[in-house]
Amino acid sequence: MNDALFSLKSQVVVITGAAGLLGRQHAEAVARAGGTPVLLDLHAQPVAQMAADLAAQYGVPASGWAVDITQEAEIEANCAAILARHGRIDGLVNNAANNPKVEGDGSKKFSRLENFPLEVWQADVAVGLTGAFLCAKHYGTAISRNPQGGSIVNISSDLGLIAPDQRLYRKTGLPDDQQPVKPVTYSVVKTGLIGLTRYLATYWADRSVRCNALCPGGVENNQNPAFLQEVSSRIPMGRLARPDEYQGTLLFLLSAASSYVNGAVLAADGGRSAW
Asked: What's the total number of domains in the chain?
């Protein structure tokens, strides 16, 4: 195998939601491959520290920036600042999203569709979908100006391919109209990213800008053991992912190894969506 296929040497890759669980893994994958991770999140301190750690460990000029991706003016200004510092943008990972939580034993049950607040819907869509559009508009345009193009990866989900199995969240003794559920916005946002992927894949293809969607499954992260057992029984591989298990897939989609992969929707979910 030619390791150069998977190299990101001298490639500048913007990662949104970089301070999150998977955002940190995406950033490390880019740095390990010799790329320059540009880390965006709402607050500067976590991504600035991450950038310093990656620079020390991998010798790459990583940087961290505070950007609210729901605000177009902030994205536009940040894009200009990145270009002034690095001279180019080669990749974009649209990773940022709200992750609306399934309720526990609270009484309001706002996560149920009947009660779901409009303001929560609007906030979730603003970050996960509108934010991805705005980032594609500005960072993607910068990528399209490269002679060799580049790569955009939208982080969707297995729940962009299948519906949430609400039976996973049921609580014994509660009536049906009070059962906790996975909120509607997660599925809508992650499915919307697949539509955005297909649009972008055809929009700049003549400029060698590829766009693909990565659909991860769940990640094991100190969940309740009973929940882990239930969800694992619905996955052919019998477990959730480790946090680092998407690094190789992301690297493939960002690098020359996937030079003819465009508009793909790649499930990395242990087979859950195949059942």
From this structure: 1
